[in-house]
TrEMBL record:
Organism: Aegilops tauschii subsp. strangulata
The Peptidyl-prolyl cis-trans isomerase CYP38-like PsbQ-like domain, residue ranges: 52-130
Keyword terms, alphabetized: Thylakoid
Keyword NADP: no
Protein name listed in UniProt: Peptidyl-prolyl cis-trans isomerase CYP38-like PsbQ-like domain-containing protein
InterPro entries assigned to the protein according to its UniProt record, in alphabetical order: CYP37-like, CYP38_PsbQ-like, PsbQ-like_dom_sf
């Protein structure tokens, strides 16, 4: 009498396993594009995959400090009330000071084939349209 019950339980377990396998295969085969926004109650946590990856990539300490300063500005701009422009001005000055003082260290960590492009971008940052001279008055007057 116990033999048919055991056989039925075995078949039932086999069916459960098959249904689970089919569900997993269906989930994998129907891959939809992921436009996910990362959620966390901590507002300093990156909200997109791009930001999360950018923070995960190792960089030299100077670039990491500049990145953190600029991301602080991005965070402060999301505040819906009155913007803390004084804090943003400090972040801009800090980033620009590090960039001017550590040029060699920042460019030394670049691959050889990208150093020329990196030098051009560096010059554009400091002397071009987004220079400290052009950026500081905009931040300090607001």
């Amino acid at each position: 009498a116990s033999s048919p019950s055991t056989a039925e339980e075995g078949v039932l377990e086999l069916l459960k396993s098959a249904v689970a396998a089919i569900a997993i295969i269906a989930q994998i085969s129907v891959a939809l594009p992921a436009n996910a926004v990362l959620y966390s109650p901590d507002t300093n946590v990156p909200r997109t995959g791009e930001l999360a990856l950018r923070r995960a990539i190792p960089a030299n300490p100077s670039m990491k400090t500049i990145q953190n300063s600029l991301e602080d500005i991005s965070y402060l701009l999301r505040i819906p009330q009155r913007k803390p422009y004084g804090s943003m001005e400090g972040d801009v000055k800090k980033a620009m000071q590090i960039a001017t003082e550590n040029k060699e260290a920042m460019l030394a960590s670049m691959p050889a084939e990208l150093k020329e492009k990196g030098s051009e971008l560096y010059i554009t940052l400091l002397e071009g349209k987004v220079s400290r001279v052009n950026l500081e008055p905009l931040v300090s007057r607001n």
